[in-house]
Write a structure and sequence with these properties.
The structure holds two protein chains of two kinds.
Chain A: E1 6-17, H1 21-29, H2 34-41, E2 44-55, E3 59-63, H3 70-77, E4 85-90, E5 93-94, H4 100-109, E6 111-114, H5 126-130, H6 132-137, H7 141-154, H8 170-183, E7 188-192, H9 200-217, E8 220-225, H10 228-234, E9 237-242, E10 245-250, H11 252-257, H12 262-269, H13 273-276, H14 279-282, E11 296-297, H15 302-312, E12 317-320, E13 326-330, H16 332-339
Helix pairs in contact in A: 7-8
Chain B: H1 2-5, H2 12-57, H3 60-75, H4 78-93, H5 97-127, H6 129-144, H7 147-158, H8 162-186, H9 190-198, H10 203-232, H11 234-238, H12 246-255, H13 258-285
Helix pairs in contact in B: 2-5, 2-7, 3-4, 3-13, 4-13, 5-6, 5-8, 5-10, 6-8, 7-8, 8-10, 9-10, 10-13, 12-13
The chains are: A alpha/beta, B mainly alpha.
């Protein structure tokens, strides 16, 4: 499978909670509202016509407020929840066609999960917790401990191997959760509001740990969050859910620059645009400057680019990519323009 | 108007026939299957006799040593271990050694049977709400029906002796372990269970790595209750021929021997306290991973 090909493919996924979900499926397909379904038919709409393709090695954020169906969605990928209708493919495997044993093997080797409330085994030490997934795979204890130890060190918990989870702070417990998930060598990492229960400072810390690890590991990560800042910081791609339906998909740039509707507009209104937007997203791609003198990299944020642009005055500054090629140019005016908060009226 | 003044009931003759019918039915059942049942329970009887003889025949210092080490291993407390040894020395000094050994043998075997039957039933019960709704009333009956009532069919089937006594004890002592196993497993954190599933646990792995260990404090409370209930049945079981501390108590009741009754009664109390403290201390140690407990 090539890198660009989707590793996880979700097609027309529906989930209705209730006693007879199949009978309500056609109503949902006709576009009945969540409210109406609940009040008239006593069924809860979990997900409605979700389509999502997640490329191999990318970090896909799924964002939404509570009740938007994001936790339901992530549980479909390893089939902790059975869909009402739709298809889920991982690589060339149809997840919904898997038999019990196949599904178990799939969960053991392909997916690993990190939970909002950590879900560690309280009666086991850090070392035993991290080796839990390996344990279930049937790997011998010594080997499992050896591998677990490496991951414990990697998440910065060396020295805590023999502690019980209850003794650790929330941030440390989630490091255990992360190490446990990474240790299985599963290529898909499912993170369900993994950092939402942590203090802001520790959360930032964990986000950086995750980005560092991802730089090196290139796992395919599905990350659930209700926090837009977190979504923008982590996500290669961001999908926004509302009331079980997909509202917008795209990169952080696309979502900030072109919010699909008022709902998302409200979300992005108050974020720090200078920090989220990258030069790449606002530069002019035509009329490339000849030389690359004083060029700035395309992946830095507007905030980081401003000092260098300010010293250039009104002149266009060349922008180069990681390979050093000039790919565009940018002026300080264009940056300031991009930082203006959009109103409902002048939205594009 | 008669209808409201007197409760409608079966006639005297019908009632008698009904009772006779049930009795006859059971009698013929016990006649045809009594022997098979006795054979079925024979290995149990042999084991019980062997265990009792072993305890009685073993030199008393060795028994004291075993008691000291078991209580220490269970509780990790020198106080409890020393207290237990002193109690047993007193029991021996007051001439109740053999009876106490018989009772200990009986209680141990009964508890083992209850654990090996009760925990699997509790596990099954925790898996299905339907099974729970079927078994719960059965357990209620087992705990509340006067013991003498189920002694009747047990004695009709198996006669008088150790096995029917053991059965009676088990019927009374089984419910708590079943209930608390079921409860303990149902109380296991749903999120941890979800994690077990997400990592691909099989049913058995989930049970042994997550459910049983996390339910263990509750299961152990059940074991403790089961032992206490078994001890409570010692006197009643002695009425159908189980040797042990119950027999002298019965004699004391019949003949108004105050001291005899008191000594043996207190010996039962001492056993109960020792079993209780040791199992409780052990149960607490199972939760050492919670905040505040000592590490490792």
């Amino acid at each position: 499978m090539s890198d660009s090909e989707a590793l996880i493919r979700i097609e027309h996924l529906y989930k209705i909670f209730g006693s007879r979900p199949q009978t309500k499926l056609s109503l949902v397909k006709q576009g009945i509202s969540k409210q109406e379904l609940l009040e008239e038919h006593h069924h809860v709409l979990g997900l409605s016509d979700i389509n999502l393709e997640i490329p191999k090695g990318s970090l896909q954020v799924v964002m939404g407020l509570s009740g938007s169906g994001k936790s339901t969605l992530i549980r479909h990928i390893n089939r902790l929840i059975e869909p009402t209708a739709g298809e889920i493919w991982v690589g060339s495997g149809d997840v919904l066609k898997m038999e019990k044993v196949q599904l178990r093997e799939f969960r053991r080797h392909r997916t690993a999960m990190v939970f909002q409330r950590f879900a560690l085994l309280p009666h086991r030490t850090v070392l035993e917790n991290v080796s839990y997934g390996l344990n279930i795979q049937g790997i011998a204890k010594d080997e499992a401990y050896k591998r677990a130890e490496r991951w414990i060190e990697r998440v910065g918990l060396a020295g805590y191997e023999q502690h019980f989870p209850a003794k650790l702070s929330g941030g440390m417990q989630q490091r255990v959760g992360l190490a446990r998930a990474l240790a299985t060598d599963a290529d898909i990492l499912l993170m369900d509001e993994a950092f939402s229960a942590l203090d802001p400072l520790i959360r930032t810390d964990m986000q950086n740990i995750l980005l560092d690890l991802q730089e090196e590991l290139h796992r395919t990560i599905v990350f659930i969050t209700h926090d837009l800042d977190e979504a923008l910081k982590l996500g290669d791609q961001i999908a926004i859910l509302r009331d079980g339906g997909m509202v917008q998909q795209g990169t952080a740039q696309q979502i900030v620059m072109k919010p699909a509707d008022d709902y998302i507009m409200d979300f992005v209104r108050d974020i720090n645009r200078a920090r989220v937007l990258r030069i790449r997203g606002v530069m002019a791609r035509e009329g490339l400057p000849e030389n690359a003198d004083g060029a700035i990299p395309e992946h830095i944020s507007l905030e980081d680019a401003l000092p260098r642009l300010a010293s250039a005055g009104h002149e266009a500054v060349p922008v180069q990519n990681k390979q050093g090629q000039v790919v565009g140019s940018i002026t300080v005016e264009a940056v300031i323009q991009a930082m203006i908060r959009p109103d409902h009226d002048n939205r594009n | 108007m008669d209808f409201f003044e007197e409760m409608p009931s079966l006639g005297r003759r019908d009632l008698m026939n009904l009772r006779k019918g049930i009795d006859a039915g059971f009698r013929s059942f016990s006649r045809s299957y009594g022997e098979d049942l006795e054979n079925f329970f024979d290995p149990l009887l042999q084991f019980l006799i062997f265990f009792e003889k072993l305890l009685i025949a073993a030199p008393w210092p060795i028994i004291l040593l075993i008691i000291a080490s078991l209580t220490w291993l269970g509780s990790r407390s020198w106080k409890i271990a020393a207290g237990s040894v002193i109690c047993f020395i007193l029991i021996g000094y007051l001439g109740m050694w053999e009876d106490t050994m018989s009772t200990v043998a009986m209680i141990s075997v009964a508890t083992l049977i209850c654990i090996s039957i009760g925990i699997p039933i509790g596990v099954l019960m925790s898996r299905s709400d339907r099974l729970q709704s079927i078994i719960t009333p059965v357990l209620d009956v087992m705990q509340t029906i006067p013991s003498f009532v189920y002694l009747i069919p047990v004695v009709m089937l198996l006669g008088i002796g150790k096995v029917p006594g053991l059965l009676a004890v088990c019927i009374y002592a089984l419910p708590p372990i079943v209930r608390l196993t079921n409860l303990g497993i149902r109380l296991v954190d749903k999120q941890v269970l979800e994690a077990a599933d997400a990592f691909g646990s099989s049913y058995w792995q989930r049970l042994k790595d997550v459910q049983i260990p996390l339910a263990l404090p509750n299961i152990f409370a059940g074991v403790n209750q089961t032992i206490m209930m078994a001890l409570a049945m010692v006197v009643i079981a002695s009425m159908i021929g189980v040797k042990g501390l119950g027999i002298p108590v019965l004699q004391a009741i019949a003949n108004q021997y105050l001291a005899l009754g008191l000594f043996n009664g207190l010996a039962i109390v001492a056993l109960a306290i020792i079993f209780d403290r040791v199992t409780q201390a052990f149960g607490k140690r199972l939760q050492r991973h919670q905040v505040g407990g000592p590490n490792v």
